[in-house]
């Protein structure tokens, strides 16, 4: 979710992952969305089509990587998950350059099935994570309304952001150091194309088609094919770095933290959307 992503074992004395807290937080989020009714059948049809687009050779595709990144770029800026990323003004911004193809594909699918672009981006992001082998399931809701107003510019941390700067960006949106460490792990399914055009397509770990902790291991040990400056800075940041180190040896803990944070990101600024519907059941099993 940096400006160029195609898209994100330590001593337990340094950091302890509170799984119970994550589960309680998810329960709160589920309640706060006031889920109503069963998931409309159209989302099962959408899920089937997304699978054909997101999986190839048993691994997740570049379109899947773009769908994951699109959630960050639509939901994180002020305005939240409102589909504004698909508006020409917002999509044309340099941080979104690599997302033009993926977002236009998702917008076309939203129009085809008669659903909001905002819902399509959120659902497709969750679907894309599951499409990567070993990817976890994020509780995913639909019922958002699309916005006709572009989000304010300059709210995404740049690819060379300092560790403290990145953390401040996320704390301002209600995410902790643990959340940021978990979310940056999405770079396990990432390839960069614009930060260094001479290395276009370079992945952030050696297994970009698989959802695993290799990203954390190779980022910390400086062994990744390509690492964003911002990621290196986060690995050295006083609060985020120890959590990344913990996740490097604890995939279960990372998955739990990621799905909690990713689910909450998809609900940013949706309080006025009315009752949302839980469509997790439509995601691939």
UniProtKB/TrEMBL annotation:
Binds 2 calcium ions per subunit. Binds 1 heme b (iron(II)-protoporphyrin IX) group per subunit. Gene3D superfamilies: 1.10.520.10, Peroxidase, domain 2. GO terms for biological process: cellular response to oxidative stress; hydrogen peroxide catabolic process; response to reactive oxygen species. The active site is at residue 73. The keyword Metal-binding applies. Its cofactor is Ca(2+); heme b. It comes from the Eukaryota. One of its GO terms (molecular function) is heme binding. It is an enzyme of class 1 (oxidoreductase). This is Peroxidase. It comes from Trichodelitschia bisporula.
């Amino acid at each position: 979710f940096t400006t160029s992503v195609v898209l994100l074992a330590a001593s337990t004395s340094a950091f302890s992952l509170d799984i119970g807290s994550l589960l309680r937080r998810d329960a709160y989020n589920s309640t706060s969305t006031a889920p109503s009714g069963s998931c409309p059948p159209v989302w099962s049809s959408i899920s089937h089509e997304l699978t054909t687009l997101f999986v190839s050779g048993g691994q997740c595709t570049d379109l899947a990587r773009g769908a994951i990144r699109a959630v960050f770029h639509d939901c994180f800026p002020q305005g939240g998950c409102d589909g504004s990323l698909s508006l020409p003004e917002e999509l044309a911004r340099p941080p979104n350059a690599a997302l033009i193809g993926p977002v236009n594909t998702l917008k076309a699918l939203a129009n085809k099935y008669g659903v909001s672009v905002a819902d399509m981006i959120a659902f497709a992001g969750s679907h894309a994570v599951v499409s990567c082998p070993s990817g976890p399931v994020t509780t995913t809701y639909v019922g958002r309304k699309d916005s006709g107003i572009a989000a304010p510019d300059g709210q995404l941390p740049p690819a060379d952001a300092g560790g403290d700067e990145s953390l401040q960006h996320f704390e301002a949106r209600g995410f902790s150091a643990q959340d940021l460490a978990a979310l940056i792990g999405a770079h396990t399914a990432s390839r960069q194309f614009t930060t260094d055009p001479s290395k276009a397509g370079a992945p952030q770990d050696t297994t970009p088609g698989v959802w695993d902790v290799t990203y954390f291991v190779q980022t910390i040990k400086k062994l990744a094919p390509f690492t964003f400056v911002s990621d290196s800075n986060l690995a050295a940041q006083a609060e985020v770095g120890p959590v990344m180190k913990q996740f490097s040896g604890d995939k279960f803990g990372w998955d739990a933290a990621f799905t909690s944070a990713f689910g909450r990101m998809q609900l940013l600024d949706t309080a006025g959307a009315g009752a949302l519907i839980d469509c997790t059941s439509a995601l691939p099993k």
